[in-house]
Hints:
By secondary structure, the chain is of the alpha/beta class. The chain has a single domain (2-243), classed as Rossmann fold (3-Layer(aba) Sandwich). 36% of the residues lie in helices and 22% in strands. It contains nine helices and eleven strands. The chain has helices at 2-9, 44-54, 66-72, 74-83, 130-137, 150-162, 176-182, 188-198, 231-243, and strands at residues 16-20, 35-38, 59-65, 87-93, 96-97, 103-104, 141-146, 166-172, 199-201, 212-213, 217-225. The longest helix has 13 residues, at 150-162.
Amino acid sequence: MVARAIDSLGLDFTKTVVVSGIGCTGRTSGYFKTGTYHTTHGRAIAFAEGVKIANPDLEVIVVSGDGDIAAIGGNHLIHAARRNIDMTVVCINNFNYGMTGGQFGPTTEHGRYSQTSPRPVGVIEHPFNLVKLAASSGATFVARWTAVQARRATQSIERGIKKEGFSFVEIIGACPTEYGRMNRLGDGLEMHKHLLEVADIQNGLPPHEAELDYENRIVCGEFVNIEKPEYTAVLREMQEKLKG
């Protein structure tokens, strides 16, 4: 999806940087011919902020998972959104730490099972709704799609890249090896069929109403597209004033 968006927009590889963290999607950046950073756990957005501030002319795209972005990197997520720094964050949410054994994370649903929340109790915590979190933190573009809605997701990533400000696109993915097995959700094909069945497209819905109930209804669409001053542009203006 990210590759198709870059190709569709005709971005200059020498002026594009793809940043990824640690997790199932951590090696994403290594597959691109753009500038790339494969960063430490939870620090993908922090690295991306540094890149953008150092050279505001670069197009910066972050690709990482829910554990990386919303757990150890959660503080970076909310403050990058608050600052409205121009970057596009694509978060692949598979509801657990799939790469390191299937531990529960900040998006694992209440009552679900994982390697660190086994039967009969399951997870006793309540999950983040990342769309609500990004929107309430100040993101200027927010969308959610499932992995099987590839064309719609690609279009939203394109819009996020073109948006001058902090863009957040959540992609609901499947982890049959860990999460699916622990919760008896079927194999990869069954999980993806399920995502298609429960996806409810509601473009323009207020983000606080964009519910995510894996079993019954995953609200998808573009929920936020607003205008406000972008961080590096404001920074440049301040620098000019100080010079003057």
